[in-house]
Amino acid sequence: MHLDLSQQRHCFGINSLAVDESNGLLYSAGRDSTIRCWDTEHKSGPVHKQSFTHHTDWVNDIFLCNQNKTLVSCSSDAAIKIWDEEEGTCMRTLHRHGDYVKALSFAPSAQLFASAGLDANIFIWDLNQCTSPVVHLPHHNSLP
Questions:
Q1: In the chain, what's the furthest Cα-to-Cα distance?
Q2: Is the pTM of this model over 0.85?
Q3: Distance from CA of residue 34 to its chain's centroid?
């Protein structure tokens, strides 16, 4: 069963993209609180494959890891979510930021990722555990 095209696309702007080149997939993170997966190698052109819908505000950044089997996202709902890409399910939600989480950066060789938000904090997480940050770089109220 195919959805109507208007139900497949984002209804607001797109904040971030991630590419799974080996499987011909493109992920888009939107201001409609969803992440959408697109099959870019379909014979009739790009088609919507699935949606990830557990965020409650803008999805600001995403990245793929673990041989493109895991998707990590951050949102203006102040959450970071770890997704099973194949199942489309949220495996874990991380809450440490006190405001919108705006950016993620992944270090594949160390299996660590950093998150940064409008609360001016940076957290570094171990992707294999994801229970609590391994490093916290707190914000400072005064400039040097």
A1: 59
A2: yes
A3: 10
